[in-house]
Amino acid sequence: MRAPIGDFDNARPAAACLDELTEPVAAAVRAWSNDIPVEQLIYVDTDPAIADTAAFVEHHGADLLDASANCVVVAGKRGGEQTLAACVVLSRTRVDVNGAVRRQLGARKASFASMDTATGETGMEYGGITPIGLPADWPLLVDSAVVDTEWVLIGSGRRRGKLIVPGKIFAGLPGAVVLEDLGTA
User: Fold this and answer.
1) How confident is the model at residue 57 (pLDDT cuts 50, 70, 90)?
2) Which domain does 93 fall in, by range?
3) For residue 85, what is the domain's CATH number?
4) Is residue 115 part of a domain?
């Protein structure tokens, strides 16, 4: 199988390589229910040593620069209560934590969750967190530019390996809210 973007030696349907995914991601793929067929979730094996965006793009293709997205875990706090959420933005942008995220969560303060919180609560590896397989009760804030991207490269739950999926898939994930300008330059 050839990946729709990038230059990868080994692209396969994610459903055919569940053992390469973390358990929460594999469970989400097994139980897939979205308008986009599960066959359009593609897994590509990647070297974690070149996971940095610049090195990754140099190795796997310049077309990935505009098609790569990051998923980060944020914590919103208000009155002693904490709400965890995930944000998905194109990798050339940053998450507007103190503006869009704070307002959407109705939080007094918002910040990136600690690495221990992000990995412990998601069951995924730091640097590979993906919106596919997150806790279903979490808000999933997605920048509209991600949804408008034909094919998106995102983490697979592990630092090794990535998923390539249609951008419109993110709008149909549990808890998804599509926002304008979630990602800022």
Assistant:
1) confident
2) 11-184
3) 3.90.960.10
4) yes
